[in-house]
Amino acid sequence: MKNSVLWADDDAQHSLLSLHWLLTKRGLAVDTAFNYVGAHDLIVERSRAATPFHSALLDVILPFAPQKTTLQSYLGFKLAEDALSHGVQAVAFLTVVRQIEVLDEFQDIQRRYGQTRFAYVDKLRLLEGSTIDELISFLLADPRFY
Q1: pTM of the prediction?
Q2: Which whole-number Å values give the CA distances from 116 to 17, 84, 144, in the listed order?
Q3: What CA–CA distance (Å, rounded) separates 44 from 25?
């Protein structure tokens, strides 16, 4: 499905709940997971049904599974690779982790998946200027923003 988005973020059910409403209102079909295992299961399920996600909106730091509050280092990058291997065409990282802290990982995944579009968005700047509009346009594959 062209506008289907996997959103994996433990903040999606709390502080970012209104973002889900906005993404849906702008025409995106959003499936949400709050940890790595839940997101991975959604990716595999959609791939088996021959309806892979078009894009992914991922936090860089995720809990591994329910009831496991320990956050694994940069698990969002592993999840991005899982999503890309199942047909995702665009990945946006939405996180509080400063890009400079994960620059090597970000550049590595860009290098290995050169045909894929990537974006990196700071959660703390989400409400500044046109950041939300640019993120949504990226997820919708609007060429004005990539």
Answers
A1: 0.91
A2: 27, 8, 16
A3: 26
Domains of the chain and CATH, by start:
4-145 (3.40.50.2300)
Distance CA 95, CA 7 (A): 12
Checking DSSP bridges between strand 90-95 and strand 55-58, what pairing results, if any? parallel
pLDDT tens digits along 43-88: 999 999 999 999 999 999 988 887 766 656 799 999 999 999 999 9
Contact 109, 80 (CB under 8 A): yes
Geometric angle at alpha carbon 110, from 71 and 42, rounded to 5°: 50
Residue 98's identity, in one-letter code, is R
How many Cα atoms sit within 13 Å of 116 on the Cβ side?
A: 25
**Contacts (Cβ under 8 Å, ≥6 apart) of 62:** 8, 9, 10, 35, 36, 39, 71, 72, 75, 76, 79
Cα–Cα distance measured from residue 50 to residue 92, given in angstroms and rounded to the nearest whole number: 22
Helix, strand, coil distribution of the chain in percent, nearest 5: 40, 25, 35
Q: How confident is the model at residue 119 (pLDDT cuts 50, 70, 90)?
A: very high
